[in-house]
Amino acid sequence: MANSEGTETVIESTREDIPLKTGTRLSKWYGCNEECLSGTKFINAAFGTLTFIITVALLIQIHYGDYQVVPHGSVATDSLECSKIGTQILKQGGNAVDAAIASAFCLSVVTPHLTGLDASGQMMIYNHKSKSLPEIVDFSNVTSSNLPTLVLGLAYIHKHYGSLAWKDLVLPSAELAKHGYVVSKMLAQAVNRANASDLYGRLEPGQLLRHINLSNTLLTISNITENELYSYIDSRNQPIETQAIQSTFHNYNVFVPSQDSIGPILLVNLREIEEYNFTQLNVAATKKILETTLKIYQEFNVSSKFHQGTSSNVAVMDLEDNYVSLVTGMYGMFGSGELTIHGYVLDTKLPNKPCSRIPIILTESKFICGKRMALGANGIAQASQLVSNTVIGNQNATDGIEAPRFYVLDNFTVAVEAFHSPKFPVDILQYLKDIHKEPILMPEPYYSSNIVEKYGDELSSHSDSRGGGIASRF
Fold first, then answer.
1. What domain range is 48 assigned to?
2. pLDDT grade, residue 17 (50/70/90)?
3. 42 and 111 share a domain?
């Protein structure tokens, strides 16, 4: 857009740690108000406010200079590089699915302890304009002699939901692996905790790490023509595609997967929590949420039915109100621990025991323009706390994600995070001590949950500090 002096306003990416300077949207005009107003009301409102809008816009520009636009979209991942790759795809005209695919490839490079080219996963895809039930693509148990699991799953998703060329989505990660990335504290901790120094050496936070073999593999994958890529997908290795199931929780629609997932059990737990009619999250409410969650784990024998592997979450929203939550992961840190000559770690497959990872989308049920959220979790305990934090507690994206969490372990004991801040209040810790004699302290690294949130046309996002990422907006 040209200003009064003939220069152009450049649309730039921003990060969640850099405050936004908002202004008007430079794009195809669509907003939540388009659905809230119609007919003569809309026409009258539009003409009645036109002069006012123009005047205010000119005054702002005169006072502040050229202004930034309201964010068109946002990507939240466990890595700033991956979040930025996702928003770059949005800037190139890609949709939320394209951005999620590109970010997932990036995460396979920079978080090999959590995910990789052989990782499993689920993607939830929702469009708030149509308000149809979200689509779920589950590629947890697909195998092929031609492509590793993650690549096969993302290829299927690209065929049915992508818009940009396949090469454009893979190439940025090939370049990142070639030129290197800064090792995160979480990756260094994972190497030590899993005794995986034979894979990548002894890593220190802040050092530069290159994956040349992985870069070459990604480059090869990027150069596969789309016709050839899609030919590898057949009835024997095709991901499972279903519609999400829906429930309500404190005036929010909750969308979760149904087939072979913890989704239905999560909804049972949320219904139990809702019966208490909490209006705020305090010590008493947290105790009841903990009690209810522990009871659900026992009643449904959750730990025996579901495997809690690693988890990495990509959350995306784009300009056209497409919302995506993708969760990927492996059997355990660094999968099977076997590094292939192609530069990625093989995973251990459990075909008869689904993983507890779960993508989630929340929308305020009484207001079209109300709050909408895309996020992911690993396990019923984490998911229940995240939903409660953001809905009952009405916390913003950052506070809802960063709030302290408890964990239900395989033997139905409860643990809390030893090092994450903020921590539970003393009353909660004493309550746990009364139950288990001494609270069990979970060491780092912790599995994160990332979120993109929209209210009206305002967009916010946050990458969980547990994962070490930073969200990116454009």
1. 14-64
2. low
3. no
| Continuous H helices in 223-339 | 226-231, 263-274, 283-299, 302-305
Residues 74, 87: contact at Cβ < 8 Å? yes
Tell whether 315 and 417 lie within a shared domain.
Answer: yes
In this structure, is residue 272 part of a structural domain?
yes
CB of 73 closer than 8 Å to CB of 90: yes
Residue 113 shares a structural domain with residue 230: yes
Q: Domain ends where: 28, 45, 64? A: 64
- Residues 93 and 27 placed together within one structural domain of the fold: no
User: Is residue 12's pLDDT more than 60?
Assistant: no
Say whether both 331 and 232 belong to one domain: yes
182 and 136 fall within a common domain: yes
Q: Give how many domains the chain has, as a whole number.
A: 2
Nearest to 273 by CA among 259, 254, 260, 258: 254
Cα dihedral sign for 255, 397, 67, 50? positive
Q: What are phi and psi of 449, to 5 degrees?
A: -140, 130
Q: What is the mean pLDDT of residues 207-222?
A: 97
Average predicted confidence (pLDDT) for the chain: 87
> CA-to-CA distance for 439 and 418, rounded, in angstroms?
10
Specify whether 170 is located in the same domain as 278.
Answer: yes
pLDDT tens track for 377-409: 999 999 999 999 999 977 788 999 999 999 998
Share of residues in the chain with pLDDT > 70 (%): 85
- Condensed to tens digits (0 to 9), the pLDDT of residues 339-360 reads 999 999 999 987 678 899 999 9
**In the predicted structure, residue 31 carries a pLDDT above the cut 70:** no
380: CB partners within 8 A, 6+ apart: 262, 265, 266, 269, 293, 296, 297, 302, 356, 408
Residue 147 within any structural domain of the chain: yes
Q: How many angstroms separate the CA atoms of 10 and 340, rounded?
A: 43
Of 5, 38, 64, the residue at which a domain comes to its end is 64
Structure tokens at 201: 């050496």
Residue entry with tokens 């990142």: 176
Query: H or E segment at 221?
Result: helix 212-222
Return the sign of the alpha-carbon dihedral for residues 448, 454, 459, 460: negative
Q: What is the CATH number of the domain that holds 390?
A: 3.60.20.40
Give every CB contact of residue 347 below 8 A, 6+ residues apart in sequence: 116, 118, 119, 120, 149, 330, 331, 335, 336
The pLDDT value recorded for residue 1 is 43
Phi, psi of 215 (to 5 degrees): -60, -45
Backbone Cα Rg of the chain: 22
Q: Is residue 329 a part of any domain in this protein?
A: yes
